[in-house]
Amino acid sequence: MAQTSRPSSHDKIATRLAEILIRLNNGDKLEPRQLADEFGVTLRTIQRDLLERLAFLPLAKDQQYFVLEPYYLGKLTTNDIHRFAALSGIKDLFPNLDDRFLRELFDNRVNQAYLIKGHHYEDLSDKSDEFKQLEQAVVRQRLVHFLYKGKTYTSVQPYKLVNHNGIWYLAAMHNQLLKAFCFSRLKGLQFDERRFEPHRETLAIIEQEDGIWFNQDKREVVLKVDASVAHYFKRRSLLPNQHIDKELEDGGLIVSSRIAHDEQILPLIKFWLPNVHIISPDELRETLVEKLKSYLEQYGAC
């Protein structure tokens, strides 16, 4: 039977921040040491929450308590609070996250421009202006044009800015095809005043896809995971669209994954060798063997 993943550190941060924000919004006085005991974290962590992660809020100090300035009370809805907490817990993902930008995260339209898939980040500080312009194109549903890998793309429909494993991508429709463009490789961005109408089906594909391989024609890969590393796969999904099909008597797992392209999973399998074995399809196993043989021959180890 499949195991439920444990909450990630990001989930814990988001939950804690959401609770703190709700209490502040309700006018509660918060004492850092009490919060640290309640959430099972250090005093320094709570101080970071209040003084860094929530620094954009007009907080006041009443003796040892933190409170929200009266004029700001009740301005945040529960949905706003949870949306912000989910993003602020991974604030380093954003190339230029200043106070103004944080306040904009409470704007539902801006929030919908982003999709986070992963917990690391790339440095885009030198392209923060273009990033912001592209965000606005997503929000306002405006067509964009750019150069990408030496090819000109015109009348592109920008749907989402997706962060996958620390790299920002633009999920967009071009010539009736859903594609992912690496943001840092976009050149000559131009923004059109013409609008497009997003399709719900396309948005669903982007949000449900476990990665940036936007292809509806997926195939199943079945793997056997040795008991020695099974706990990593039970803790969280390490493979695209991972599903634990069976737990074996020796503690191993039978795991399935749905992929759009071989390279979506082959690097992951290589990482876990020799503790992961391809059961099916045969062609994928043969491709992996050929790649390994080529590598060994290249370095005279075969």
Written account of the structure:
The protein is of the alpha+beta class and 302 residues long. It folds into 3 domains: 9-89, Arc Repressor Mutant, subunit A; 92-215, no CATH class; 219-298, Alpha-Beta Plaits, CATH 3.30.70.920. It contains 11 helices and 12 strands. It has helices at 9-25, 32-39, 43-53, 78-88, 99-104, 108-111, 128-140, 200-208, 227-235, 266-272, 282-298, and strands at residues 59-62, 65-68, 114-117, 142-148, 151-164, 167-174, 177-182, 186-195, 219-225, 243-247, 253-259, 276-280. Strands 3, 4, 5, 6, 7 and 8 form a 6-stranded mixed beta sheet that branches. A 4-stranded antiparallel beta sheet has the order 10-11-9-12. β10 (243-247) and β11 form a beta hairpin. α1 packs antiparallel against α4 and α2 crosses α3 (43-53). The model is unreliable at 1-8 (pLDDT under 50).
Give the structure's gist in a few sentences.
By secondary structure, the chain is an alpha+beta fold.
